[in-house]
Fold:
Amino acid sequence: MRFPEQVGQEVAKYRKAKVGPQNAMQALTGMKTQQYNRLENGADVRLSTLFRVTDALALEMALVPRERMLLVDMILNASEAQLETYKQFMLQQLQYEEDPSKALSSATGINALMQELSDE
Structure:
């Protein structure tokens, strides 16, 4: 996300799913509804305000290099079956890091995973 409007839209989506109406956020954040409304409407707000809201919604913020954003988006938008594939791949990678003799063939590496996901 690169614009305040996009942040506001994402926050609104999670708020609706987890909390319900905007005025319910007042009890969770200690913010006035008007102040919270500004965030959802894409106003330029303080980072501390954004952190307070993400904490209340049990969300995390991360800075992601643009070249890795495709992978992050794929994980965030994945089905349960796809998430299971990702988990298995990551477990294999961790095993390899612990014991390089268990190296994965190039056919089962990240390129193969990316190919499999793009085919779906």
Observations:
- The chain has a mean pLDDT of 85.
